[in-house]
Amino acid sequence: MNVSIQFLGAAGTVTGSKYLITAGSKKFLIDCGLFQGLKELRELNWSNNIIEARSIDAVLLTHGHLDHVGYLPRLVKLGFKGKIISTAPTSELTAIILEDSGRIQEEEAIRANQLGYSKHSPAQALYNTKDVKHTLTFLEHVNDNQWLNLFEGVKYRFLQNGHIIGSSCIEIDINGKIILFSGDIGRFDDEMFLPPIQPQRADIMIVESTYGDRLHPRTQTNEKIRDVILENDRKKGTLIIPSFTVDRAQDIMYEIWVLKSNGEIPNVPVYLDSPMASAVSKLYFKYSQWNVLGSHVLHKLMESVEVIRSVNETEELSKNTISKIIIAGSGMMNGGRVLGYLKEALPNPNSTILITGFQAEGTRGRMLKEGAYEIKIEGKYYPVNAKIESVGTLSSHADQHDILRFLEKIANKPEKVFISHGEPMAANALRVKLKDTFGWENIIVPKLLDEFTLF
Q1: Residues 182 and 207 sit within 8 Å (Cβ to Cβ)
Q2: Residue 314 and residue 318: Cα distance in Å, rounded?
Q3: pTM above the 0.90 mark?
Q4: At 119, is the pLDDT very low, low, confident or very high (cuts 50, 70, 90)?
Q5: Domains along the chain with CATH numbers
């Protein structure tokens, strides 16, 4: 059986993860993510030529982040009729993420048409909530750490990799050859999740490189967050924490709860403005075996915040001048509830924006982190007078050290290693490190749409 791989996303970038495996007459995808960030990447979401949806027999998902599942409704609209397979938490999380994505895209199209800031007339959603509802009928979940048949001669299994709830690396066995997809690897010292399961063998490897060129800072997360909160309270200002609603919101809630419990910060009100984050938090209770906090702590976290549910509440809170902390989606500030708060907070020198995760090139978060003096939101520019802070220790991605640790128990020498899901500098740095550390030789950093014969 001839087997090949084509990189339809996450090549030279950290977004749009899509890997097409052709095994004889069968074709299947590992992940089906949405491109985010730079305009030229986002435009790929609209292309009907990047993928032949009707020819795809199945999709396997490593985890439920938008850049790994967000293209699924588009794939279905283009004619996909196969199975979408994942772990149970990933399946439920995918439903939450896609429902939110469809709603946001509908709302943004309506707003763009009302305000006239889109170049398209009329502006349209990539997909809507009806498309999402149809897509969810294709979802199936299976147990992790169990070999299962996909097609004749093709088996697969999911192994927990500690990135977010439900996340896994995927091993594909094709007639005895093992293809390993690392997925987004988690950290070995994560406070919320079990450490990644280390794979034992890989003939072909596809490994992520988000932080392939760096180590996470050694500064304590709680100390940095404490200092930012104390400074914000001194100014009696508003602290905005744009947050990824999966894992990151829960991380931030946990850190603030611990600081309050220890008496290190005042009892400043904390608001969670992300209906999706609230829904995701419920999965932590349901799938407690995937995290290490326990239901008692999880209940305390939810009790420690006031959940904002309606758009009207968001608008009222954004204009409220009391000293407060607001955790709001989305993490890279390219959409979601956080935009309403940024409009009020960015021009205000008493406000603080705390960036807590990776910011892809071309996102508002990246611009703020790199010192932009103004930010465009819905066709209007807002001056950046607020203080911009950043904490790098909350990342749910492995750094270079953890990536090496994840791979260190692979006993054989892989025939080919592909480095994906990283910007060029990070991917190349990891390529060199893998060669020097393990003596692996055939290490490739693919470009978008590159195709390779595997065996």
Answers
A1: yes
A2: 6
A3: no
A4: low
A5: 3-214+397-453 (3.60.15.10), 221-390 (3.40.50.10890)
